[in-house]
Amino acid sequence: MGKKLLLEHVDVPGINTLSVYRQKGGYRALEKALRTMTPEAIVEEVKVSGLRGRGGAGFPTGMKWSFLAKPEGVPRYVVCNADESEPGTFKDRYLMEKIPHLLIEGMIVSSFALGAKTSFIYIRGEYFYVARILEAAIAEAYEAGLLGKNILNSGFDHDCYVQIGAGAYICGEETALLESLEGKRGNPRIKPPFPAVAGLYSCPTVVNNVETIAAVVPIVNDGGAAYAAVGIGKSTGTKLISASGHIKKPGVYEIELGVPVEEFIYSDEYCGGILGDRKLKAVVAGGSSVPILPADLILKTAAGEPRLMSYESLADGGFASGTMLGSGGFIVMDETSSIVKNLYTFTRFYHHESCGQCSPCREGTGWMEKILHRILDGDGTMKDIDLLWDIQSKIEGKTICPLGDAAAWPVASAIRHFRAEFEEYVRKGHSIKDVKHYYTTQGLPEPAYS
Amino acid sequence: MPKVTIDDITIEVPEGTTILQAARMIGGDVVPPAMCYYSKLKTSGGYCRTCIVKVEQGSAKDPRPMPKPVASCRTTVMDGMVVRNKTSQEVLEARAGVVEFLLINHPLDCPICDQAGECHLQDLGYEHGKVETRYEFDRREFEKIDIGDKIQLHMTRCILCYRCVKVADQLTDGRVHGVINRGDVAEISTYIQNSIENDFSGNVIDVCPVGALTDKTFRFKSRVWYTKPVDAHCNCDKCSGKVRLWYKGEEVLRVTARKDKYGEVEDWICNDCRFNKKKTSDWVIEGPSKVDRHSVISANHYDNLKVLKATVDRQQLALPHGEKVGLGKGALDPNNIHGKH
Amino acid sequence: MHTDQKRDIRFDEQTMETVRKIIKRYPEGKHKSALIPILHIAQAEFDGWLSPEVMDYVAEILNIQSIEVYEVASFYSMFNLKPVGKCLIEVCRTSSCWLRGAEDVVRHIEKKLHISVGETTSDGMFTLKTVECLGSCGTAPMMQVGADYYENLTLDKVDELLDQWKSEGKRSRYC
């Protein structure tokens, strides 16, 4: 069994309540921080821990915190990014729903470390019921004097609010999130300035993912060094992985970074193997935007080393043969899955979620979706495959925010690793009527799902 | 003051200058095209991505290159920065890609668009676009909307530069139009039937880089290259009164603000000057305007017509009995209209 | 549907108190931050969609221009700018849900309710919508109705739910 730093008590009945959470050692980190530590010392522990942003980018959290500007007389804000919308990712929802106080405690400790009197948890609108759970937890925390004025007699005042979104993937981009929090359209801002200098209401702001903020709790409890001792190399600590697709046991798993991918997919401790014991075809390892890898490359690197669940190992080989840990949204596809159709669902998603502010993403995402639709309809040409490649290359790196890259990478990787399948769609044209039919053309057993 | 090198030309610029502004200080080929940036409108720029350039060296202190092309209009110059625009194949290819994106859903209805001849997208397409389109799907269409009795919104042509929204925010009180919906169905709209009523609303026409916002009082009256721009002024209590009159014969067909070589207005003008003063007697004439932009519009009356007139005069001399020579086919030859360009 | 009747668009005092509380969260002059939370309340209060009149009312409460509300409301996919049925069914269709049979669920509902995606049943009871990833990939396929998630769907389970909602006249509300 791997070490659990966040979800150790997830199955304890009533852990969503303050009393049970405290019985299990909850709010110890807050007491320790307020009573025995300076804000600087907390920032230092986070640096030592090697914690990296768990929302997808993997940027070192301690470094992000140290960029925060601290001009006199200007309020600072901590904002929690709970907009979890990357297809394949549902770990933040699980954490907030099961152990809301872990996030609240992390918010208060982080805000103390960064000198923020107010914090916001920006949660995607579809998670309304989770917002209610968080609000209930916050109310309990106020009641117990863990929020509000003079917390635990430390002289530190803090208010924490839940802000609800309304359906927009782009608000997971931190500056779009801040725009939305200011009551505007979720258009990403042009950077610089970065939020650390001018964020919410133009004030210095740190935006961190739910899991990142929750991880501050064990870091303060046990020290940054203890956190860094878990994991492998620069991939320190644990990571929540959302596992879905054709596996026997979908769900959220807290892993010590460094678990072999093969073990993660096949062991009973985690995914439990492929549904129906069919063959593994491909995996999207870190949420929809990271490159898809075929079975051989997800299990082993191009050099033949076992692939591990870590930032470095998953990225080994660059985009030619590697991928990214991303948000930890781990989507497994068995041998009956159509890569082209799956890509179509991703591309349709990015087209739907493009904010429309900058031209390459606004125009390019829809164009790619139309071409993929045409290929699936049996009307594609070989030239379409090259055209798709060219369009994604003209979006990648040319947009205001990373949504452009996120839309481009799945297309590029699907063509890179599964070009033959695209060509087959084109060759067989109308004879591939729907995806189910595709399996039979492959001589494969018809799957349980279309 | 920081020094920046753009396409191998070094210039010293004031602190806080953007790459685009620095390039404009150098002038000529070094200047990246800009479809959404507008120096007179705060927070404009960054959206269209046509002005992207490659930063080969970030600064003298940190010489690392920037990993991705950047929007030159929103990137501040650092001392020792080295930038590539026209001298980078990567930039030219990326820009051609942006131009293609801007054109795939554009109706290409230049033959019936009042903006033709002074359209920035037309210029951009001419310079960077390819002859053939690779887009084989239906183009996006929107209904035409009247936003007041003087301004027509033809959303199908819009490239979402946001300039008109910024004009409304920064020049007028109580903005009634904005960007609604999102993604590729985002549109400039008042959402409910509404007209834009304020003294400076007409400026949205001047800032629009394409034919999405046009002057209804000029609608279909003439191709712009058949009209003759003349600078004029009047004593106006609302605006500077400095305008450009566009003549066809003796008739003033339209009034606009005066624009510089980047197509930006020099002074905002009020609706009274723009829409209501269409008689020569309303104005003090200063003389023919010099249009610097290398567009169709600047290729009209000066060099070209002079040459044409000289040709006509010469032919006239050669003809017996004072027969008149008309401007034949050749006068409308696109090669002549484009003139030196 | 109640769209034809003109009705008084005004929050009752209790709702107004909630609205005032939300506005108070934000610093002086930053009350526009309350826009999205208030639009949610307005949508729930006024028949599940945001008519121009409702949006104008929200603009009035926040003392902002109506266009600022239209801009925001039309950006976010959870706000309905056209009338919807009493019970809005949103079926997720992205990758993991597709892999686990979301298309079968959609087809099944279409057949059962005699409508296509985007349409409302003639009695105004159900509107069917497909949506992008709702963060329920591990329990796919799934659908959202109001604030509730219905996960690990089978066609039988869908039948059961639809029958139950129809008989009880379920109204979907996020809040």
Report the mean per-residue pLDDT of chain C as an integer. 95
Write down the oligomeric state. heterotrimer
Just give the CATH class of the largest domain in chain C.
Answer: Alpha Beta
Give the structural class of chain C: alpha+beta
**CATH architecture group name of the largest domain in chain A:** 3-Layer(aba) Sandwich
Tell me the CATH superfamily of the largest domain in chain C: Glutaredoxin
The DSSP helix count of chain C reads: 7
H/E element sequence of chain A: HHHHEHHEHEHEHHEEEEHEEHHHEHHHHH
CATH homologous superfamily descriptor of the largest domain in chain A: NADH-ubiquinone oxidoreductase 51kDa subunit
Number of domains of chain C: 2
Overall radius of gyration of chain C = 18 Å
What does it look like?
Chain A has 450 residues and is of the alpha/beta class. Helix content of chain A is 44%, strand content 12%. Chain A has 3 domains: 18-229, NADH-ubiquinone oxidoreductase 51kDa subunit (Rossmann fold, 3-Layer(aba) Sandwich); 232-334, Ubiquitin-like (UB roll) (Roll), CATH 3.10.20; 339-441, Up-down Bundle (de novo design (two linked rop proteins)). Chain A has helices at residues 18-23, 28-36, 39-49, 61-66, 91-98, 100-114, 128-143, 174-181, 210-222, 224-229, 261-266, 295-299, 311-315, 318-321, 339-353, 359-376, 382-395, 403-428, 435-441; strands at 77-82, 118-123, 159-164, 205-209, 231-232, 235-236, 238-245, 251-256, 280-284, 292-294, 329-334. The model of chain A has no long low-confidence stretch (mean pLDDT 95). In chain B, 22% of the residues lie in helices and 17% in strands. Chain B contains 8 helices and 14 strands. Chain B has helices at 19-26, 89-104, 120-128, 163-171, 203-207, 271-276, 303-318, 334-338, and strands at residues 3-6, 9-12, 52-57, 70-71, 81-84, 145-146, 151-153, 178-180, 187-189, 213-215, 228-233, 242-248, 251-257, 284-288. In chain B, the strands form 4 sheets. In chain B, strands 2-1-5-3-4 form a 5-stranded mixed beta sheet, with helices on both faces. A 4-stranded antiparallel beta sheet of chain B has the order 13-12-11-14. In chain B, helix 2 crosses helix 3 (120-128). Chain B is globular. Chain B starts with a strand and ends with a helix. The model of chain B is unreliable at 300-309 and 322-341 (pLDDT under 50). Chain C has 175 residues and is an alpha+beta fold. Helix content of chain C is 42%, strand content 10%. Chain C is built from 7 helices and 4 strands; from the N terminus they run H-H-H-H-E-H-H-E-E-E-H. Chain C has a 4-stranded mixed beta sheet, covered by helices on one side. In chain C, a hairpin with a 2-residue loop joins strand 3 (143-145) and strand 4. The radius of gyration of chain C is 18 Å and the shape is elongated. Chains in contact: A-B, A-C, B-C.
